[in-house]
User: Fold Site-specific recombinase XerD from Mesorhizobium sangaii.
Amino acid sequence: MSRDDRFPDLMRAFFYEWLVEQRNASIHTVRSYRDTWRLLLRFVAQRAGKKVAMITLADLAASEVAVSPSRRT
Assistant:
């Protein structure tokens, strides 16, 4: 992971600064968001042929995440 990749910092800020500190989200809400992000990152990593830890913000482009009806399994 390069120093220029801000994705881990953005994720940390989303969970700790925005959800917890600013929105005062319950632990259940935080866990729900966490679990959803885990599933999404695993999916993106599999499609990109990378490990989850190597995912960058660029890997999360809508065109990379959207699944057309013909690609569904």
